[in-house]
């Protein structure tokens, strides 16, 4: 089943049903209108000479026409090159250049960025604006094919690439990661199976559509549901919109969940419509997850994945989480990323690819058609992810318990070595999250002449709160012991990616460059 077949199936459930909805409840597009725009964009791209596999960027904040353009690109046989509208222009040029992007549809609010990209990217041959854009660029409504135009159906080929994503920008120059129709189909099957809803979902998106926020949106459309479009995470707006629009589904990274929970009006709204509050992209502190259940109800769900095996490797379901927070429940399970979904086999392996027994830490590895075929024109980087016996190595250190639940202990590169002892930053971070005035934290290793590395905590306090650093250090020493306890705490705002991940690499680079050997 091809990506567009899935969406066309959803559109056919009720063509007049809302497809794209504004935060104030205005219906921006019905399913019929959305499908029509996608066809008109596809026909215009084909008339422009688009060939199968040509890369086309849709550079836009969350927008109804931009979503339809994405579908139009794929419908025409192109590859959607998923550039983040919030990225710096240098990063956009690097990514689009590495992907070999030939066309760009951009939102008029990003005309300045678009101009810089055009000036620096020789491969671009066509640029179109959604709304008024750069002088000389056609506007989408005038450029796309006339009303009623229909793109020809493409042959069914599940190996055909439909998306080029970047690696996230936290590890240097971008690596281009192709996603094909088979992977998309498996993601949607897993989401439908593990986050079922009796009626067409109403999904609130507030994170960039070029990342997980968009990935969670398309399965909703495939079920005849609707997408409530927010362009950024503003806590009061999100909380109000859930109630006003009767949202049934929401996705946010951990940091944005924390902002919602810390908002003064978080308990003043009606969240009874919610069926699934989806979490992904970064681990959630167990204490905050329990707090979220108390506020939003037994609707929290956490998916574990990575771009190379996208979206749905494991899931900690609402039932799993609700049972853990219930009286007598196993609160430790809130630290789990769940059990494998129906589309993936997940195990803990050693360096030789052997499956390890429960309780023994090793690398989290995946076998599935969900796993990517390899980085675009980068076989060396691809080889680094391959493990014996066909396993894909995630680079995460984890452990599985007797009940089959997986726990991410650390990234391999984030493990701290103190006097020959392995210290997993996640264990220290979990304890720091128990302090009520801590909003978020990151634990890193900085050079130490005697021990090799010193455990260092970078802590971001909640708004208006002051941390008693000495008291926290003493508590860590008592609870974690002298090896694992931080030797120092740095209080500051944490650097984050556009999808809310804490950038530990930036922290390490910053403090090492600043002479952190004296820490």
Automatic annotation (TrEMBL):
Q: GO MF annotations for this entry?
A: ligase activity, forming carbon-sulfur bonds
Which Gene3D superfamilies did the record assign? Answer: 3.30.300.30, N-terminal domain of ligase-like (3.40.50.12780)
In what residue span(s) does the AMP-binding enzyme C-terminal domain sit?
427-501
On the tree of life, the source organism's domain of life is Bacteria
Which residue ranges does the record assign to the AMP-dependent synthetase/ligase domain? 15-376
Q: Which InterPro entries match?
A: AMP-bd_C (IPR025110), AMP-bd_C_sf (IPR045851), AMP-binding_CS (IPR020845), AMP-dep_synth/lig_dom (IPR000873), ANL_N_sf (IPR042099), ATP-dep_AMP-bd_enzyme (IPR050237)
Q: Which Pfam families match?
A: AMP-binding, AMP-binding_C
Name of the protein this chain belongs to: AMP-binding protein
> What is the protein's species of origin?
Amycolatopsis iheyensis
């Amino acid at each position: 089943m091809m990506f567009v077949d899935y969406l066309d199936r959803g559109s056919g459930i009720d063509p007049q049903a809302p497809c794209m909805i504004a935060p104030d409840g205005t219906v921006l597009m019905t399913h019929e209108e959305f499908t029509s725009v996608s066809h008109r964009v596809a026909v215009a791209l084909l008339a422009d000479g688009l060939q199968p596999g040509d890369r086309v960027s849709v550079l836009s904040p969350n927008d109804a026409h931009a979503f339809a353009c994405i579908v139009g690109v794929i419908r025409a046989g192109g590859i959607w090159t998923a550039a983040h509208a919030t990225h710096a222009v240098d990063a956009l040029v690097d990514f689009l250049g590495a992907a070999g992007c030939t066309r760009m549809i951009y939102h008029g609010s990003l005309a300045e960025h678009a101009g810089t990209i055009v000036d620096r990217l020789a491969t671009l041959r066509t640029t179109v604006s959604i709304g008024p854009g750069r002088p000389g660029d056609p506007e989408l409504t005038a450029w796309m094919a006339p009303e009623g135009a229909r793109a020809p159906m493409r042959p069914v080929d599940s190996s055909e690439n439909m998306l080029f994503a970047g690696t996230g920008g936290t590890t240097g120059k971008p690596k281009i990661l192709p996603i094909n129709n088979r992977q998309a189909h498996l993601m949607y099957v897993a989401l439908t199976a593990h986050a079922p809803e009796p009626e067409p979902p109403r999904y609130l998106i507030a994170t960039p559509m070029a990342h997980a926020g968009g990935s969670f949106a398309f399965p909703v459309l495939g079920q005849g549901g609707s997408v409530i479009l927010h362009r950024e995470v503003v806590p009061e707006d999100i909380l109000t919109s859930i109630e006003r629009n009767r949202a049934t589904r929401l996705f946010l990274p951990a940091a944005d969940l924390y902002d919602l929970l810390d908002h003064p009006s978080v308990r003043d709204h009606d969240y009874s419509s919610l069926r699934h509050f989806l979490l992904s992209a970064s681990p959630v502190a167990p204490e905050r997850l329990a707090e979220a259940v108390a506020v939003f109800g037994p609707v929290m769900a956490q998916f574990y994945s990575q771009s190379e095996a996208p979206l749905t490797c494991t899931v900690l379901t609402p039932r799993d989480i609700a049972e853990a927070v219930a009286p007598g429940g196993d609160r430790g399970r809130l630290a789990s990323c769940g059990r494998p979904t129906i589309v993936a086999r997940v195990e803990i392996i050693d360096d030789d690819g052997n499956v390890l027994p429960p309780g023994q830490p090793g690398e989290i590895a995946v076998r599935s058609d969900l796993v990517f075929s390899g980085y675009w024109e980068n076989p060396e980087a691809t080889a680094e992810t391959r493990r014996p016996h066909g396993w894909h190595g995630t680079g995460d250190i984890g452990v599985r318990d007797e009940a089959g639940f997986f726990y991410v202990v650390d990234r391999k590169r984030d493990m701290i070595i103190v006097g020959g002892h392995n210290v997993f930053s996640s264990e220290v971070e979990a304890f720091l999250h128990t302090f009520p005035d801590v909003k978020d934290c990151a634990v890193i290793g900085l050079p130490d002449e005697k021990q090799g590395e010193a455990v260092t905590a970078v802590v971001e306090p909640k708004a208006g709160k002051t941390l008693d650093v000495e008291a926290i250090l003493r508590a860590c020493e008592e609870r974690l012991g002298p090896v694992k306890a931080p030797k120092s705490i740095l209080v500051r705002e944490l650097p984050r990616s556009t999808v809310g991940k804490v950038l530990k690499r930036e922290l390490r680079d910053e403090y090492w460059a600043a002479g952190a050997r004296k820490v």
